[in-house]
Amino acid sequence: MTTGSTARDPGTGPAPGAPASAGRVLRRWKLWIVPAALSALVALVLSLLYMGGILTPTGSLHRLPIALVDADTGAPPPGRDENLGARVSAAVVSSTPNDQVRWRRMSQGRMRGELASGKVFGALVIPSGFTADVGRLTTGEATERPALTVLTNPGMGSLGSSLAQRITQRAANEASASIGRELTGSQAAAGQPPGFRLLLADPVAVQVKVGHPIGGHSGLGLSAFYYTLLLVLAGFISANVVHNGVDTSLGYADSEIGPWHTRRPTVPIDRTRTLLVKMGMTAGLSVLTTTLIMVATIGVLGMDAPHLVLLWLFSFCACLTVGLGVQAVNAAFGGIGQLVAMFVFIALALPSSGATVPLEAVPGFYRFLGTFEPIRQVADGVRAILYFDARGDAGLARGWTMIAVGFVVALVFGFAMTRYYDRKGLHRMVPQPG
């Protein structure tokens, strides 16, 4: 009979206190449940969110605003009640479904203001002498083809401006074909040589011009989006760095760098004061990150950026608000807070930003998200500062308003949750390692 030890069959398992093998740990099916479920959820949801927002921009069009200017002052042709400008305008509007494009009839002066404030993605302009110019074709007095002008607005993003240009050009070409059918069937075309009849079949030229130019170092209208993304990522990442660093310094989390592992003595501090520390550090770091983003993008890379002081102030407030929001989410949700914050501030915000694919060209779910998700609000303000002379009606006023709302929500939500936890006695104190 032996004492002080227990007989053990070889292969039944490690001796008490012996290191576990990697294979034995991997065979524990419970170990796989949470990582597999979270990884699968993230992969599935991100795939649906990102690809669902960009695959069918044309099919998802919803009232894309385009200006329509009829400046034609010519008298109606014989036997007609309206001049060609009025007829072309009516044909353009009726040729496009109302639920896809919102043609906004306006004067040339108002059109310039709408382009300069980002209210429209482009414009179609019928010139003042359009009826007279088309009439000269039938008499042989014309020296060049009459023209309709398509104006683009690159400050609204390359895809948005391109969609508007394509729609407007197609409408102008259809108008030319309609006029051509009328001219070739008129008495003026009878007996004319084939070349002349060919001209009458497509009598109107379509000129494409930039309606509201932006700088050459603006990424074809994408610099506002990428600059916004930098601000949001800086706020998100620095907030998480602060969150982990403070927990480590206060002894509520281990520090492991390479092979070195340490655990500091736990500092007795409640959740509310901890959140106050984290938010204070986030505010200080937002000054640094905002400044460095501007130094890198403007000072080093030469991005076109007027209104530097206003841009810095708006950028700081946006970066700070994102950081405070992340701290509030982390304080409320604990260990899964960083994943929740990633969805709130990145995963759901990117496809609903309206900065690369216009909100008018994405499914309705993304338009709903765009009413409150942060990247859309920040991008509107940044775009107004960079491209539209910092006009409030170009999105800057909305940007400031939503940043203020986000700032208040972050503070109220974060401190309400930590005060609740503290009052319930849900302290973070943990036993000290032996």
TrEMBL record:
It is found in: Cell membrane. The chain crosses the membrane at residues 31-55, 224-242, 281-303, 309-332, 339-359, 400-421. The keyword Zinc does not apply. Residues 41-403 form the DUF3533 domain. InterPro entries: DUF3533, T7SS_ABC-Transporter. Keywords: Cell membrane, Membrane, Transmembrane, Transmembrane helix. Residues 1-21 are annotated as: Disordered. It comes from the Bacteria. It is a multi-pass membrane protein. Its main location: membrane. Pfam families: DUF3533. PANTHER family: DOXORUBICIN RESISTANCE ABC TRANSPORTER PERMEASE PROTEIN DRRB, TRANSPORT PERMEASE YVFS-RELATED. Belongs to the ABC-2 integral membrane protein family. This is DUF3533 domain-containing protein. It comes from Streptomyces salyersiae.
